[in-house]
Structures are given as C-alpha cells and as structure tokens.
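Notebook entry, structure prediction.
Reason for the run: the old model in the group folder had no record of what sequence produced it. Starting over properly, with the input documented here first.
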Amino acid sequence: MAVSILDTLDIIATQIPTLSTEIIPIEESVGRIVTQDYLASFDLPRFDNSAMDGYAVKRADAGKEVSCQEVIYAGDTANIELKKGMAIKIMTGAPVPQEIDAIVPIENVTQTGEKIQLPDEIQANAFIRIAGEDIKAGTVYLHQGESINAYTIASLASQGVTHVSVTKKIKVAVFGTGDELRPHFEKIEAHQLYNSNSPMFLARSKELGCDVSFIHSVADNIDALESAIASTLGVDIIITSGGVSVGDKDFTTQAFSNLGMEILINKIDIKPGRPTVIGHIGKTIVVNLPGNPLAAMVNYELFVRAIIRKLSGNKQKYHHSIQTVMEADYKVRGGKYAVILGKYTGRSFSALSTQMPGMVSPMQEADGCILITPETTLLSRGQAVNMIAIRWEMYSDKKEGLLS
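New structure, fully documented this time:
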C-alpha cells in the first residue's frame, strides 16, 4: 500500500538516525551542524567601551565648557580619572573608565583649543557599549542542531573557540540502472539514452553539503546490481534511479532486498513518483527513485533532502512553506496527491505550463512546488497556496501544513 506524502515525511523525521560526531577547525565548519550547545566563556563586549570617536564626560557638565587633556585609544587601559569640568577624548572601541556617564560624539561638540563646549542634553550611557550587551557569559550563543555559517564562526572566534563539534559529513553514492543508459561523456547509439539522473543527483547532493561518489549506470540484471550495491555499503545514503516499477527488468528493489534491505516505504501516494522505495541496509539509507527525470527530481527534493537534514542532526528537519497565491488559473486532472512545479515571483506562484514525469527541461525552471490533494481540479488565480522552495533552503523545527 502506498504511503502518503505527509506520513513519508513523518517516517523520515522519526526513523532516520543522526550521524555521529567529529571535531573540526571552525574555519572548515561552514554548513555543518553543531552537536552540542556552546556557552559563552566571557561577556561580549568584554568591557564597557566607546561606540564612537568622541569625548567621555559627566552628565553634570552638560551645556558647559570643559577642558580636555587626555586621550584613551582602543587597546589602552581605562585607568584615567575623570574629574568634574573635564573631558577625555576617546576612540571607538576604547575602554570606558567607571566614572564616565556618557560619550559625546566629536561632531556634537565645539572645540576651541583645549576647551570643549558640550551639548545641553546628554543621555545616560549614550554611545557606551556595555559589557555583555551582545553575549552574556554563561549563556548559550550556539545551540545543538543549528547550521554553521560565516557569521556563526564570528561568534565562535569571539569566544576564542578554535574547534567545533559537528555531525560527520554525509557520504552519498549515486548510480542509475538501465541497459539503455550511457554516461554523458560517451557516444551513444540511436536506441540509447544519456543518463541525466545520476549527474543531477551527484551535483544536488554536493550542493547540499554531502561527499558524493558516482557509480556509472548498472545493467538491468540482479548480479550487476548486487555487485554495485555491495561496493557502496560503506556510505550513509545510496541513491538509485530506475528499475523500481513493475517492468520485466525492474530488479533494483529485489537486488537491495537480497542484500538485506529493510523497507520503510515501498510506494508513495504521489504523482509523479509513486514507485519510490526508502529503506536501509544496516546503517546505510537506501532510496530507490523512479527513472523518469522529473519524477525522480520531485521525490529527491521532497524526501532525500529531508533525509539529508535528519542525518545531519539539523533541528530544522521539516519542510517550511511560503504562503503565496496563484499567478493564474491552472487546471489539474485530480484524483491523486500531486506535485506542481512552478516559478515564484516574490508575490505569486506561476505553475509551469508543461511538466511531464519524463521531462528534463522543467526542472531547471522551477523555483518551488506545491502539493495538492486528490479533490483539486482547478487552482484559481489569486488562490492561496503553500509553496515548498527548491532553489533555496527553507525548513522548520516544527511540523506544519504543506498541502494546498
């Protein structure tokens, strides 16, 4: 029996494990998922400091003329005493002495020799960056399950962290099946086809941060399939396309089962892409996708992306949708849960006019997709829909409604 789209995503969220941990330099950690909370060792800023080039003053001297004979630069110590009727010239980032009430920017004073005319109003702590106002010592500034980016690395470096604990990089093996398929770098006969699926999944998996190995197209027989499978069982995910329907040479699932695959999902109630199998052999996740390129691409985006996020330990493991509206009327056949590819304008979703399971060209046009229910036969112009993004990552740590 075919499993629903939402139940498939639930099975992925609950039954796919997270990979183990490794420790790497922070400079190499972009895109990786942290496996523990990181607590601040000290305040940031570490001390009260000036947010402007200006003058450190007492508020009691507001509107008065004061003298200035001292300067504090960034990197200096703050051991200068400020007396009433005096000001201290101070540079951005310089430590602020305790008795200072505020910083007055240079452009807000009038200077005559060593005398400074202060403005009539000076707010308490104006232009003073208070110790700990950014990150407080003892607080969590990076949470388990978060993805590291360049700006996360800035936070880690600001705390003197050199190495970070992350989930291991996901290893993916990709191969296609079919006697008619040939690699794109070979000449083909009139009865043959180029294998477009495997290079597509290789590139997409790399784009999502995985280490990928490519096994060339495998012949449609049990022995060849089992040999290819056995050579890849050290990876975290094996992705195949083709050979999962009911044709005379559709042996892919049988070959995996012969090698001990436990099937989690045998078919998915989705159009296109119903003949999709998800299972595992030991710790290796197996995804058998359809051979039709567009059908395979749709199920990769919906389900393989979710598997990758779950393996990575990312706390945002659920698809997040954009609420938008239809750009124009779009008729559908109805009767099945279906995926509609389209372009997102920033204001609306425009369904691609032609999108058949065996096509290649619509895939490069699509920004996102919407999932529709069996009773849907018409998507009307202006109708609200939930779009799942394809060109960028949008996920949530909470399950939400995806069907339109």
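Summary: The longest strand covers residues 65-72.
The old model has been moved to the deprecated folder.
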